[in-house]
Write a structure and sequence with these properties.
Blueprint: H1 2-9, H2 12-65, H3 74-86, E1 90-95, E2 100-103, H4 116-122, E3 130-132, E4 135-145, E5 150-161, H5 163-213, H6 227-277, H7 283-314, E6 323-326, H8 327-344, E7 348-353, E8 358-361, H9 363-379, E9 386-393, E10 397-404, H10 411-414, H11 426-432, H12 438-448, E11 452-458, E12 462-470
Parallel strand pairs: 7-9
Antiparallel strand pairs: 1-2, 1-5, 3-4, 4-5, 6-8, 9-10, 10-12, 11-12
Helix pairs in contact: 2-3, 2-5, 6-7, 7-12, 8-9, 9-12
Catalytic activity: ATP + protein L-histidine = ADP + protein N-phospho-L-histidine
Protein name: histidine kinase
Organism: Hominiventricola filiformis
Length: 475
């Protein structure tokens, strides 16, 4: 149970769901906070502007009635008290000597008020509102004099309560919390639905791949919900096609191996049974049959030896015993071993070297490759034919070309000649001998050296194999 939960929390479905939920929830919280902060700021600005306009009107009345020098005007006192009550605040009038002329709270009258904001106001500097606890405070100058020579005769210091703003803000906050909760629930439901929809193609892929794991290679992956899944499907189908080809090759290889190993055994069984049925067979017949049995054993041994060599070549972990080698001398030694076979078949064997070449190779494994190429060129040649081996190099690779005047390879067979046990002419191959693994071993050895091999052939004219090997072996 805990293991299942752990898998779910590590799943892409869960991660997408969490990301979508957090995106929706945090967006809602952010928008709510932006709204509340914006409302508070605009409400404060609106309140300060309203208070400032009212105070400017009062300032004009105070200046006209010379209230700062004669603060006994009942009408103005009522107006001051009315404005202070309207904003649930306090109004203080300060003359040019910083004396408090009027205080709607009647607490600071006949005292001195020297504060930074008041001083700035007397100097004519613009003064905005500033919050002080639950109040907004601001200063408004009282202008006196003619239109051309106005001066600041006093300052109105006013504070207005912000309780109504914060009461509305509290209501808005409660409403926003409700809306955020609703949006969070909707985001959670939406994220669950959307995450399931997004990972549905992956679930289909997983189900299909699970069928493959059980051994079924039938059908193709066909999930085209979006461009990405379509691309994955196409790539997977290419890989699946190659996997089917590998499986077919494996089955064919097993069948070929079984056939190649069973054929000599069958021959030996027939020969042995024939001898047993002839209890008084002459010694010469025994010798002849035993020679045939020995030949079949040699053939069986040859097949097994080539199979083991091929298996070793195919292992990815197999390391090459690389050493710096004189390629000219290396090829000369290979041709020296094969010259008796060529002379017996009356084949001219020629080596042409365009330059002296030294490279990093595994001489044992690469010797198998070149020996197979040259030996095939001799065996599948014509009487009085020729085999030419040429060596060349550039700054990065060396090239070995093996050409012959033999029977050639049909074009339809060229793509298959490196497959195991493949023979172009099975009847002729039986006469000549061989296991059908030589070219497969050759290709494996060349590929192990990070090289490449190509073939060009024309029926009844001859065949040319071109091998390219790096001068330096790079792991």
């Amino acid at each position: 149970m805990f293991k299942t939960k752990g898998k779910f929390f590590r799943s892409m479905n869960f991660r997408i769901m969490v990301l979508l939920f957090l995106f929706g929830f945090l967006s809602a919280v952010l928008m709510a906070e932006i709204f509340l902060v914006s409302y508070e700021k605009q409400a404060m600005v609106q309140l300060s502007n309203d208070v400032k306009n009212q105070c400017q009107i009062l300032g004009n009345q105070i200046s006209s009635a010379d209230f700062l020098h004669n603060p006994h005007n009942e009408s103005l006192e009522n107006d001051l008290a009315q404005v202070a009550t309207l904003y649930d605040g306090r109004i203080i009038l300060i003359d040019e000597d910083f004396n408090i002329v009027k205080d709607t709270y009647a607490l600071e009258e006949e005292k001195t008020m020297v504060s930074e904001e008041v001083v700035k106001c007397f100097k004519g500097e613009a003064s905005g509102y500033y919050a002080s606890g639950r109040f907004v405070e601001l200063t408004v100058p009282i202008m006196a004099g003619s239109e051309t020579e106005k001066k600041i005769a006093g300052v109105i210091l006013v504070s207005a309560s912000t309780d109504s703003i914060y009461a509305k803000l509290s209501g808005f906050r409660r409403s926003s919390e409700i809306w955020v909760s609703v949006i969070a629930i909707c985001s959670l439901a939406f994220s669950i639905l959307l995450s399931n929809w997004l990972v549905r193609p992956l679930k289909h892929m997983n189900q299909y791949i699970g069928d493959l794991a059980e051994g079924s290679l039938d059908g193709d992956l066909d999930i085209h919900d979006c461009t990405e899944t379509e691309n994955i499907s196409n790539t997977f189908n290419i890989m699946l096609a190659r996997l089917r080809l590998v499986e077919e090759s494996r089955q064919e290889f097993v069948a070929n191996v079984s056939h190649e190993l069973k054929t000599p055994l069958t021959s030996m069984k027939v020969l042995a049974d024939s001898l047993l049925m002839q209890g008084d067979a002459p010694v010469e017949l025994y010798k002849e049959f035993m020679q045939d049995i020995a030949n079949e054993i040699d053939r069986e041994s040859s097949v097994i030896s080539d199979l083991l060599t091929l298996v070793k070549m195919d292992r990815k972990s197999t390391e090459l015993n690389v050493a710096s080698t004189d390629i000219n001398d290396f090829i000369e030694q290979i041709l020296k071993r094969l010259r008796p076979i060529a002379e017996k078949a009356n084949i001219e064997l020629v080596f042409e070297s365009n330059r002296s070449v030294t490279a990093e190779i595994d001489a044992t494994k690469l010797s198998l490759a070149f020996s197979n190429l040259v030996e095939n060129a001799i065996k599948y040649n014509r009487e009085n034919g020729w085999v030419r081996v040429s060596l060349d190099a550039d700054h990065k690779f060396f090239y070995v070309k093996v050409s012959d005047s033999g029977i050639g390879i049909p074009q339809e067979s060229i793509d298959y000649i490196f497959e195991r046990f493949y023979r172009v002419d099975k009847s002729h191959s039986r006469e000549i001998g061989g296991t059908g693994l030589g070219l497969a071993i050759t290709r494996s050895a060349v590929v192990a050296h990070r090289g490449a091999i190509k073939v060009q052939s024309t029926v009844d004219e001859g065949t040319t194999f071109i091998v390219r090997i790096p001068l330096r072996y790079i792991v």
